[in-house]
Amino acid sequence: MLKELLKKNEITAMKARDKATVSVLRLVNADIKSFEVNERETISDEGIIKIIEKHIKQLKEALQYAIQLNHEEKIAEGNFAIELLTPYLPAQISDEDVNSMLQEIITNGNYTASDMGKIMKEIMPKVNGKFDRAKINPMVKTLLG
């Protein structure tokens, strides 16, 4: 479903001669096709979400570098691409919601600081694609003291 939507939007952008949108969507669609060829199976929406998350992560890293270099054109391109891809991800969970989920997991499992891996295993399926993974580790460390 998500695969068809991305392809349809790429075609619409091509017809509208929107080169920037076509470029971003073409990269994502190429990664989807590459996955399907390499794995010899049709990709799921979850797999597509992981690909989009990977692209957004790379774009954010490139954006940080462009900001350091004060490269206005690259900053604009990066922001555009992130804004274009973000709506394809599931609705995002707030920091407060994840924090309360973590508190519940820690309380119910009687976890301590040495159980970091167990906590991460429990929270990741709940927030997959809906929350920035990089924020979870510091949140857990803060809650464990």
Question: Could you please describe the fold and organization of this structure?
Answer:
Helix 1 packs antiparallel against helix 2, helix 5 crosses helix 7 and helix 6 packs across helix 7. The chain has two domains: 87 residues, Orthogonal Bundle (Hypothetical Protein Yqey, Chain: A, domain1), CATH 1.10.1510; 50 residues, Arc Repressor Mutant, subunit A (Orthogonal Bundle). The longest helix has 25 residues. With 145 residues, the protein is an all-alpha fold. GO terms for molecular function: carbon-nitrogen ligase activity, with glutamine as amido-N-donor. It comes from Clostridium gasigenes. It holds the Pfam family YqeY.
Quick structural gist:
The chain contains seven helices and no strands. The chain is mostly helical and 145 residues long.
How much helix is in the residues? over 70%
Radius of gyration: 18 Å
CATH fold field value of the largest domain: Hypothetical Protein Yqey, Chain: A, domain1
| Count of structural domains | 2
Series of H and E elements: HHHHHHH
Tally of individual helices:
7
How many strands appear in the DSSP assignment?
A: 0
- Please state the average pLDDT score: 91
Shape: globular
